UniProtKB/TrEMBL annotation:
InterPro entries: PQQ_rpt_dom, Quinoprotein_ADH-like_sf, WD40/YVTN_repeat-like_dom_sf. It comes from the Archaea. Residues 108-192 form the Pyrrolo-quinoline quinone repeat domain. This is Pyrrolo-quinoline quinone repeat-containing protein. Gene3D superfamilies: YVTN repeat-like/Quinoprotein amine dehydrogenase (2.130.10.10).
Length: 391
């Protein structure tokens, strides 16, 4: 349920970030398993992006490092410690570490955008510290945007002049789930919120031309917003539903908008009163695809928990784990969908597929081993898979 690995594709390389800090580059067109280069990155390299000739890496670790490496050699070009802004960990444990949760690159403009957060808790007192950064290609920080909320995702528009930042937890003075920033100055151009009670707000954001698609944690709906934040439509995804004597819901965790087609993915079922239930929301672990008007095109079951959602041309790719209650290992794998027509043959994995990258040629995926808490068997291995898209 928390990020520990990463994978990225460039024209020539498959790059894998591993839990032990290793970052490995493989030649895409070489049959040899020998890497072109391998280095150790500070912390766990969990977010990857690339500019023309450098790889940009964000970590989860003691100082939350963002660093850039030469794509040809792996030599480090620059590094920045986000703990300088969001603070060092307040205690031991993975959840206390500074975490570069999302990273976007704009190769046309030589820009890097990243968002880092840190969580601390003292009894009932819970706090988030977060900063959005804009870097030039040489590592110079152009601007910062700081809040006391928990960011979950970012996306930059095609024109390169707007950056959307989604916040899934707002329990301090920052009280909106979405801000859209000017990429040149870092100033807020507009903001939006589902207007719901509680601290849950937004799960993911995705630009499509002048529009922005939003997966809302607040009311478990999907939205399409116009250029200034005006609501074009909203869609019930996994809203609160009465089943027996329980009220069930699931969070819309991911959204991808491309070519007037918007895809949402929902997550695990929770009960409103206890967050624990043996029942399942009818729309949990569901992929829902609609057109630009919000009209349904198709939907499909994911069979398990989706760690992310990525697109390549007309293919949707989702790495899936088991259902966390039923724990059916048959759900492990990489799900594939034709954007027009729905499910196509997937690729099963013995372990859990946790990270994917895709382009018009290849899907790359990280598999991780898993041992269910009531079993001694270890399923799968730590492995990198490459899957031709014509398969």
């Amino acid at each position: 349920m928390w990020t520990r690995s990463s994978v990225h594709l460039t024209a020539d390389l498959v790059l894998a970030g591993q839990w032990d800090g290793r970052l490995t580059a493989f030649d895409r067109d070489c049959d040899s398993l020998d890497p072109r280069w391998e280095i150790t990155h500070p912390g766990h390299p969990v977010t990857l992006g690339s500019l023309e000739d450098e790889l940009v890496v964000g970590s989860r670790g003691e100082v939350g490092t963002i660093a850039a490496y030469d794509l040809a050699t792996g030599e480090r070009r620059w590094a920045y410690e986000t703990a300088t802004d969001i603070g060092p960990p307040a205690k031991d444990g993975i959840f206390a570490l500074p975490y570069v949760v999302a990273l976007e690159t704009d190769p046309d403009r030589g820009a890097v955008y990243a968002v880092a957060r840190r969580y601390e808790r003292d009894g009932a007192d819970r706090r988030w510290h977060s900063t959005v950064f804009a870097f030039d290609a040489d590592g110079r920080v152009r601007w910062r945007y700081e809040t006391d909320a928990s960011p979950i995702s970012i996306d930059v528009n095609e024109a390169g002049d707007r950056l959307a930042v989604g916040y899934n937890r707002c329990m301090g003075s920052h009280d909106v789930g979405l801000v859209v920033l000017d990429t040149g100055s870092g100033e807020t151009r507009w903001d939006w919120d589902p207007g719901t009670d509680g601290d849950r707000r937004v799960g993911d954001v995705s630009f499509d031309g002048p529009h922005l698609a939003v997966a809302s944690h607040g009311d478990k709906r999907g939205y399409l917003l116009g250029p200034g934040g005006e609501e074009r439509w909203r869609l019930d995804l996994a809203v609160e539903t009465e089943l027996g004597d329980e009220t069930l819901y699931a969070y819309p965790n991911h959204v991808s908008a491309i070519d007037d087609r918007i895809t949402f993915a929902t997550g695990n079922t929770y009960a409103k009163e206890s967050r624990d239930t043996d029942s399942l929301h009818p729309n949990e672990h569901q992929l829902t695809v609609v057109d630009a008007a919000g009209d349904p095109l198709w939907n499909a079951s994911l069979d398990g928990f989706a760690h992310e959602l990525t697109t390549a041309d007309d293919t949707l790719v989702v790495p899936c784990a088991q259902h966390f209650r039923t724990r059916d290992s048959a759900a492990h794998g990489v799900r594939r969908f034709d954007a027009e027509n729905g499910p196509i043959e997937g690729v099963p994995t013995d372990g859990i597929a946790t990270a994917v990258a895709a382009d018009e040629r290849t899907i790359a995926a990280v598999e991780e081993p898993v041992a269910y808490h009531d079993e001694t068997q270890v399923r799968g291995e730590y492995a990198l898979h490459t899957i031709p898209l014509d398969r």
